[in-house]
Amino acid sequence: MKLNIALLAGDGIGPEVIDQAVKVSNAVAKKFGHEISWTPALTGAAAIDAVGEPYPDETHAICENADAVLFGAIGHPKYDNDPSAKVRPEQGLLKMRKKLGLFANVRPTFTFPSLINKSPLKRERIEGTDLVFLRELTGGIYFGEKGRRENGEVAYDNCVYSREEVTRLAKKGFEMAMSRSKKLCCVDKANVLETSRLWRETVQAMEKDYPEVTVSYEFVDAVAMRLVQWPNSYDVLITENLFGDILTDEASVISGSMGLMPSASLGEKTSLFEPIHGSYPQAAGKDIANPLATILSAAMMFEDAFGLKEEAEAIRAVVNRSLEEGYVTEDLSEGAKSYKTSEVGDWLASKI
Amino acid sequence: MKLNIALLAGDGIGPEVIDQAVKVSNAVAKKFGHEISWTPALTGAAAIDAVGEPYPDETHAICENADAVLFGAIGHPKYDNDPSAKVRPEQGLLKMRKKLGLFANVRPTFTFPSLINKSPLKRERIEGTDLVFLRELTGGIYFGEKGRRENGEVAYDNCVYSREEVTRLAKKGFEMAMSRSKKLCCVDKANVLETSRLWRETVQAMEKDYPEVTVSYEFVDAVAMRLVQWPNSYDVLITENLFGDILTDEASVISGSMGLMPSASLGEKTSLFEPIHGSYPQAAGKDIANPLATILSAAMMFEDAFGLKEEAEAIRAVVNRSLEEGYVTEDLSEGAKSYKTSEVGDWLASKI
Ligand SMILES: CC(C)[C@H](C(=O)O)[C@@H](O)C(=O)O
Ligand SMILES: CC(C)[C@H](C(=O)O)[C@@H](O)C(=O)O
Predict the structure, then answer these.
(1) Do B83 and A191 count as a contact with CB atoms less than 8 A apart?
(2) Backbone phi, psi, residue B127, to 5°
(3) Which residues form the Isopropylmalate dehydrogenase-like domain (chains A, B) (predicted)?
């Protein structure tokens, strides 16, 4: 199979972790007889520095024509804490999501037995947790009309959803529930928001098409609590953009494996795969960043973008092996010998 | 001093826990030579059943004329999971907040040494946590224009904030920071939302009036993470209505003492005090509900509504004693002998 992949390394540790994912992907491709064509493109602060904007048209053209996009991380301290700056890396991210139609952000939270002691939660609370959020990513208050009136004294943000947008996301949720434990939780604030009532009634109407799926409806504040109390009571959760932003980040820290969590953003034309961690500028260029989340994102890419499940499993197997054998970067080594980012990448590629 | 208090017992376990708070408050009043006049009024499902709406005008008149409102809980299963029902108890809550101008919801999260083992977090993560959220309660997306268009196929909710609303809430935040550790965190989503940018610029402009307070600005998704990771790194946090709804609930479960957490909603005319737990309908009428959160809410009332700090401390002291001596309801007794709701109230009143 010929795999046409856009490569957006981005900022900070992005380029280093992406390098390792490329090594491992190439090794898998070789083993299974695929041919990958990688097309690098600029994004984030790196793109602002080079061409004055975070998601250049050329990058968009490359992504649009690719079968999948592998993404590192964006964000640079010089743009931090200045939300009023004219050009910000985040704008590139939002523009990219919108223009590529990446409407469904898939964010799993699962545990690795060897990392469970890193969780802030007690072992009995977190053990066995294996949940996945589907966050709507191209609508809601992120993209509604926003602005000021009354000489800047009043600000507003509009949250808008259409039944079609909800249906599209919920469909992915039902399908994912069918492929897992057949439990779906719709997270909303239907006791207060009209958009949430639309979400709830739309999902309720879809229940009859998936008679095997048990659907629950929970308010966002209740989910924020239960995620800390009984995370393993959840399986598939669907929610709107802003609730998803908050809850997926909350979920990411409960497992102790945050540095390993991959994600996918599924679209109509193409899909994007990226680690959930940020650009971690303090570590940039030091060859110490943990590449496993990016490598596991590449595994998701093989499975979800190309339907290559065996290839994905091959990657996951070597990642598990590196954890078991302690061939890991310093953040995971617990005082034992640790390895460089590039060494971990080489080792994993050689074990494929 | 003459204390004129409206008493809104509400639904479920509300009446039972309110009864105990009244006993303890009366005991304190007697000891310190105050005279309390309690005026009961209907609210919640109880009010819907009696007069067809959850916050009747008569109740509003009673609250408006009171120096403080002591509130139990509202919510009844027959109104649950039916967000489209014509009359819902929550509407009464929102109407009450708006009509009484209760703009600042004060939600502390602290730990009791004897309860720390109930926390889902590891001891070293939660020990020493003592933070307080100030949640804006009468603005934002809760009260903006909302509705449907295109034959109901599109729903919208508007989030609106004025500089004045932000200033009013932030002022309380700065004052509270001054009376505590002089650390204030402004929680927003200024990388995406215009209302958040107004929040941030307003708070930034106020910094010069409180030179002793160190202010940090964090995104809501980052706070959702750090609350689970390092809750004791926070002190006073200010935020808008919806973020506050989610984060205060998340914060409430981390300490292990959720069943004991009081809250206040401060307004221009009057203030309201209530436990953060819900109406817990399954326990209603059984004399088993834990009354301590309501009793600690009464302590907040003595201190914040009437400036009676000694009286508040007297209540807190007996509550601590009941925890130490194990004179508690079954949810806290850890298999040891437990006491009825009314017995705990009687005991506390007798020890004042
Ligand atoms: C950087 C920011 C705009 C973005 C978001 O809010 O969506 C980030 O928090 C995320 O979750 O990917
Ligand atoms: C019941 C609901 C409307 C309410 C809110 O969202 O404000 C509740 O969750 C709260 O936090 O008091």
Answers:
(1) yes
(2) -50, 135
(3) 4-348
Residue closest by Cα to atom 5 of ligand 1: A245
Atom in ligand 2 nearest the alpha carbon of residue A189: 6
B220 assigned to some structural domain = yes
Q: What is the CATH number of the domain that holds A277?
A: 3.40.718.10
Domain count, chain A: 2
Using a 6 Å CB cutoff, which residues line ligand 1?
A 90, 93, 245; B 191-192, 221
Strands A214-219 and A183-188 come out as: parallel
Q: Is B346 in the pocket of ligand 2 (CB under 6 A)?
A: no
> Longest Cα pair distance anywhere in chain A, in angstroms?
64
Query: In angstroms, what is the span from residue B245 Cα to ligand 2's centroid?
Result: 6
pLDDT, tens digit (0-9, with 9 covering 90-100), for B247-291: 999 999 998 888 899 999 999 889 999 999 989 999 999 999 999
Mean pLDDT on A21-29: 98
Phi/psi of residue A105, nearest 5 degrees: -90, 120
- Which ligand 2 atom is nearest residue B248's CA? 11
CA distance A235 to A217: 13
**Residue B218 identity (one-letter amino acid):** E
The verdict on residue B264 lying in a domain is no
What is the rounded CA–CA span in Å between residue A172 and residue A157? 27
- The residue from B259, B285, B308 where one domain ends is B259
Q: Do A88 and B245 touch (CB under 8 A)?
A: no
Q: What SS3 state is found at A131?
A: strand
B151 in reach of chain A (CB within 8 A): no
The pTM of the whole model exceeds 0.70 = yes
Q: Evaluate whether A88 touches A54 at the Cβ level (below 8 Å).
A: yes
Quick check: is A287 catalytic? no
Q: Is B90 on the interface with A (CB under 8 A)?
A: yes
**What is the CA(B196)–ligand 1 centre distance, in A?**
14
Listed residues A233, A256, A279: the one ending a domain:
A256
Determine the Cα–Cα distance for residues B297 and B273; give it in Å rounded to an integer.
5
Q: pLDDT digits over B208-251, tens only?
A: 999 999 999 999 999 999 999 999 999 999 999 999 999 999 99
CA–CA min distance A150, chain B (Å): 9
